[in-house]
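Lecture notes, part 5. Sequence design as translation. It can be helpful to think of inverse folding as translation between two languages: the language of shapes and the language of residues. The source text, in structure tokens, appears below.
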């Protein structure tokens, strides 16, 4: 007997790599947060570093996720993604 998950897991298994990257990025962000917390800099500089870290981390994850989804859509055109 075949499970229903095996049909959808063919291409979406690559999202597991993005989940791992999410964990790594969150760890790095927490590390940067601790370093910035210990810095003796102005509040604006600390806020700017935190904002830059957040934008870079979020942008990386969004870029990787979109790339994986595009790869899955390219492999399986029957999903109908992008059709109106």
């Amino acid at each position: 007997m075949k499970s229903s998950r095996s049909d959808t897991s063919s291409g979406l298994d690559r999202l597991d790599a993005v989940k791992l990257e999410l964990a790594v990025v969150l760890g790095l962000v927490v590390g940067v947060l601790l370093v910035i917390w210990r810095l003796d800099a102005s509040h604006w500089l600390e806020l700017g570093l935190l904002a830059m870290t957040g934008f870079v981390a979020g942008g990386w994850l969004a870029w990787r996720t979109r790339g994986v989804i595009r790869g899955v859509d390219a492999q399986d055109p029957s999903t109908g993604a992008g059709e109106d």
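The translated text above is only one of many valid answers, since several sequences can fold into similar shapes. The mean pLDDT is 82.
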